[in-house]
Amino acid sequence: MRGAVEARRPREVTSRRPGGRNTVGAMTPTAPDDATLLQMFHTMALVAATDDALRGAISAGSATLAYYSPRGQEAVAAGFAAALRPDDYLVTTYRGLHDQIAKGVPLRPLLAEMLGRAEGTGKGKGGPMHVSWPDVGLMLTTGVVGSGLPIAAGLAWAAARHADGGNGRVTVASFGDGATNIGAFHEAANLAAVWGLPVIFLCQNNGYGEHTAFADHLRVEHVAQRAAAYGMPGVTVDGNDPVAVYGAVAEAAARARAGEGPTLVEAVTYRLFGHVFGDRMTYVDPAELEEAWTREPVARFRHTLVTRGLLSEEGASSVERDAASLAATTLAEVVELPEPDPDEVLTDVVAPAPKISAPTASAPTVSAPKTPPAEGQPEMSVRSAITLALDEALAADPRVVLLGEDISDNGVFGVTKGLAAKHGADRVRDTPISEQAIVGAAVGAALGGLRPVAEIMFMDFLGLCLDQLANHAAKLRYMSGGLTPVPMVLRTAVGGGLQVGAQHSQMLEAWLTHVPGLKVVVPSTASDARGLLASCIADDDPCVFIEQVVLLSRKGPVDDAPVPLGVAEVKRPGADVTVVTYGRQVHDAIAVADTMAANGVDVEVLDLRSLVPLDQAAVLESVGRTRRAVILHEAVVTGGFGAELAAGISEALFGRLMAPVLRVGALAAPLPYARGLERRALPGPQRLLEALEWVMAYKG
Ligand SMILES: Cc1ncc(C[n+]2csc(CCOP(=O)(O)OP(=O)(O)O)c2C)c(N)n1
Ligand SMILES: [Mg+2]
Question: Ligand 1, from 100, 206, 210, 266: best to mutate by most atoms within 8 Å of Cβ?
Answer without folding.
Answer: 210
